[in-house]
Amino acid sequence: MKTLTPEDILSIGEYEKHREAFRSRIIALKQRRRVSVGPLITLVFENHETLRFQVQEMIRAERIVEPAKVQDELDVYNALLPTEQELSATLLIEITEAEAMQEWLDRFMGLDRGRTVAITAGGESAFGEFEGGHSHETKISAVHFVRFRPSERMIQAFADLRQPVALTVDHNGYRESVPIPGSLREEWLADLGAK
Description:
Elements (H helix, E strand, L loop, with lengths): L11 H22 E4 L3 E5 L2 H15 L4 H12 L8 E7 L4 H10 L9 E5 L2 E4 L1 E2 L4 E2 L2 E2 L2 E6 L3 H8 L5 E7 L2 E6 L2 H10 L4
Antiparallel strand pairs: 1-2, 2-3, 3-9, 4-5, 4-10, 6-9, 7-8, 10-11
């Protein structure tokens, strides 16, 4: 996937002029790329445009104008782009009830280690590989970055709407699975260059 460059980024003033239209377009795109796996976990599959929006919003919020600092933001978000034959997603642990928060965060400890999150298709599974640094012995972040490397057989299943494709989370009593709709499968195929 093409990396983000300074040429992809509008100045703060120019971005302000186009922000509402850009935001509306990205909100619609993220709807296609978002999937909830049970009541507490959501994944948003990232691509060039979703991450470009994140950079623009960060530059706007922090009033970043210095080219070196803009490049720093680009470097951070380019690291989140999927590479060839890979899907990448932001995984959000969404706990809204304060009284249940600590219990669930404790239960989700270790979610980012082992075979806990997977895409299944074509009789195979691609387990998520989590970016490090978002948890330690006693604390887990509510936001994670995860990559999936589907096999060629799985990619073929994504393209065949007669074949089931699912996203599953199985960790410490949280066992949820959700079928992947055709709209997200189309996005995945585009990300994988298979469309």
